[in-house]
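fyi for ur records
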Amino acid sequence: MRAAGGSVRARLRDLVAASDPGLLRLTAGLRTVGAIALTLAVLSLLADDVRLLVAGAIAAMVSTFAIREKQRTQQAVTLALGLPVALASVSLGALLHSRVVGGDLFFVALIFCAVYARRFGDRGTALGLIGFQVYFLSLFVGATVSALPQLYGVIAVAFASSAVVRFALVPETPAGILDRLRDAFRARLAQLVSAQLELLDAGPDEIDKALQATRDGTARLNESAMMIQGRLEEGTADEAVARLVQRRIADAEIAAERLGLLILTARSAERADTLTLHLPGAPVPPGGHLPVRDEATVTLRRDLEALRLLVLRPVAEDTGTGLSQLRNRLLGYRDEENLPKASPAVQDVFRGIGEAARAVLGLRIALDGPQDDSDDTPSTARSREELDAEDAAIDAGEEVEEEATGLSRASTRAAVQVAVGSALAIVGGEFLSSQRWYWAVLTCWIVFINTASTGEILVKGYRRLLGTVLGVVAGLLLAGLVGHHTWTAFAFVLLCVFAMFYTAPLSYTLMSFFVTAALGVLYTLLHTYSLSVLVLRVEETALGAACGVIAAALVLPVHTDRRTNDLLVTVLERLGDVTEAAVEQLSGGDPAELLDKARELDQALADLRAATQPLTHPVTPLRTRRNTARYVVALLETCAYHARSLAAMAELLPTHPSIAADPRLRRAGQRILRNISAIGARVADGRAAAEVETGASIAALLETEVPGSSRYGRITDRVLRHLQRLDEAVVGLARPLKVPVAAPKR
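which gave:
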């Protein structure tokens, strides 16, 4: 019974870890709710004024979620600086309470400064956010000069409670976050293997669903890898350990993605296109005969399940048990040991499982330290030797400094846009309500956060309005339930706040829903609740969103096309950097930090993916444009996969016995790099005289001119395959991006 209970707990733990990498959402929700609850508990002993309780709850929430720095000392400094900013803001709010014009002008100036402060990094962003939100607090509770001493005390209690919860009750260290992110990566890797097993077993009616689950699992694994990359510097004291973890994470990610492609190929009569794993709605290659129940595929299903167990089981269970035997058998496939009799495509899947098992072994060594090797077979021992040699090569690597990027121009433009939009929202809001006009300003402010184009602001405004409308309905129901029971109402507010922070990264509509539901309860506590107030909330939200869109469209506009084109050029530049460095190293050039370049490519691609959301949103009427955007992003994801794979293989050169430098690769890579540059130039300037070059296959470019000599040297077929697919994908970008394609040279 205890074993069964432990198994259930382990599955639940893995599920939570996979759905919330690093438990970042859970921690944010608990920390904010804890700060509010502690503030209310302290204030209930000092005062019984509901307005002060509401002010304390809002101040505690702001002082908690505004601070985003990763190091605890930096968080403490920002929190300490935030207190005088908050006191100054509430003081000015109270002083300007009765001065309509002066108060409005100051509010617009404050908004400009708060957004402009983002150029100073996380601390500037936090202090600007605290200043704005506390001024909003003064408007919400109707702060007056006579009430300032009490409000000072309330805000001080809120900041102190936030500090207690952040540093004592719900502590969070960079190393702890990194450990949880590693657990999340393992859980998501296991989920992806499960999805691939379903893909193998799926019948004709289930194949589309199984393929989409594999796509989603691959994307989620990449997301976890990028989150780990962002935490490595702060979460590990030893730089060599950080680089080792980065390498092992990349190996596991590439091996898992390749395994999915091999399984898809095994289902088909021909080699599957990598694009199928990245483009939603892409057709499954025809001619598949799986699922069947012959001996080879039964073994294949068993080994995929064994691979999943290797990912999830603790290291302590890896020695002296059947698990070590499973590991040895899977690693044996790398050396062609015990390969079942099957078609070449199915045998490739077994080899892919062996490579994935090696990646899992390397991941375990990097994350959990040295392990007992007493049960190793010769093939497992060889895998360990390769990993040890790679570790030594990583330790000898050199650090490459990153160039800083300026945000001054973007922050200035955003500050001007928000100031203009807020001014419009103030004027329009005053016409709707002279008492609650600030809701329009708040919406205008919020729709500009983390957006950079008119299209992004439009989509965010639409989502906020939808969430607000739904939240009004929920607010009506909650207000009827709680009546004027103060502590019951605050309990509902805490639940809504937790749900708001937990769902914020997943759905902006859900977050807006919970915010509005909580406000309905707060209005009840302040004895200002009515249906007309909640309807006014919807009207002010719609007005604020409209003012934000108008300001974004008319004041220093950044149109979605321009934004996506700029990001597309960045992605192509990063793709060229990774490809050039990998090909150069595979050709015998000097080593470089290839995995860092690959992660920069992944980050640029993630930015582009986010920026194209207005183009790919389901409600967009421009269907052709939506399909084109999806196709281009999918092609770029395909390019990124092959570039990452080339980078990982290039880093194996010093240690891997089957890979050696071949100078002829430079010639093969030149065409790919020229095509990437041509596409980038054409996207940056539609009048540029650039065209894409096609011609012989990559393998043909490597043919030797010396009779009787080796055709490919020691360059593996996999390197050639990745280069060929990358070449095809880059050429494929020409048509949707309207780049001319030159006729093949004869």
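Residues 1-5, 398-408, 705-714 have pLDDT under 50 and may be disordered. thats all i got for now
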